[in-house]
Write a structure and sequence with these properties.
Layout (H helix, E strand, L loop, with lengths): L2 E2 L3 E6 L10 E3 L3 E2 L6 E5 L18 E2 L5 H7 L10 E3 L1 E4 L3 E4 L8 E8 L15 E11 L5 E3 L5 E3 L6 E2 L13
Parallel strand pairs: 2-11
Antiparallel strand pairs: 1-4, 3-7, 5-6, 5-10, 8-9, 10-11, 11-14, 12-13
């Protein structure tokens, strides 16, 4: 059957202030995927059971092929075709797409619920999005982390769990530049 494969995992960072950070998934897999497919984030055990949208998260992500501008803005590979690339974004005239701020508070782990273009799902109706495509974790850190790294060695970052969600004891961090 056509549709998204289950088991995708997406991690994003909530925006406290300033510019929006890209919240995207690349290399999305399934059968019959295409430009115009949509993903909705739902805080439920089963897709299609949500009663509304989650405050601070865009209603849906609509798939489109990546563009050279995506690579320049956030390092997205310029080779993803429609159906394989989703980003929380807004469209401007001239096929220009800008990332949207994700301001959910506190951070959350929720379901990624898929709907195909030809299913004619309504972005305002969570019940239309019934295909489970995996999970998204949106991390919200209330303060910027100070990371200290040794040359070719370990890095150290002090995380205050009371103000960082959904992070817990035993979780691991990845230090990236840029």
């Amino acid at each position: 059957a056509a549709g998204a494969d289950p088991g995708h995992n997406m991690v994003c960072e909530a925006t406290l202030d300033g510019d929006a950070r890209s919240c995207k998934i690349e290399g999305f897999t399934g059968v019959g995927l295409q430009t115009g497919d949509m993903l909705m984030v739902q805080d439920t055990v089963t897709c299609g059971m949500a009663t509304g949208h989650i405050a601070g998260i865009p209603k849906v992500m609509t798939s489109r092929p990546t563009q050279q501008r995506d690579f320049q803005m956030d390092g997205s590979s310029p080779r993803w075709s429609g159906g394989q690339y989703f980003r929380m974004e807004t469209a401007r005239p001239g096929d220009v797409f800008d990332p949207l701020k994700v301001t959910v508070k506190p951070g959350i782990t929720a379901r990624l619920c898929w709907c195909g273009k030809y299913d004619n799902c309504n972005p305002d109706v969570p019940a239309d999005f019934q295909r489970d495509a995996g999970a998204i974790t949106i991390v919200r850190l209330e303060a910027e982390l100070k990371v200290t790294c040794m040359i070719k060695g370990l890095c150290r970052a002090l995380v205050t769990l009371a103000t960082s969600a959904p992070i817990g004891v035993g979780d691991q961090l990845m230090v990236k530049s840029g």
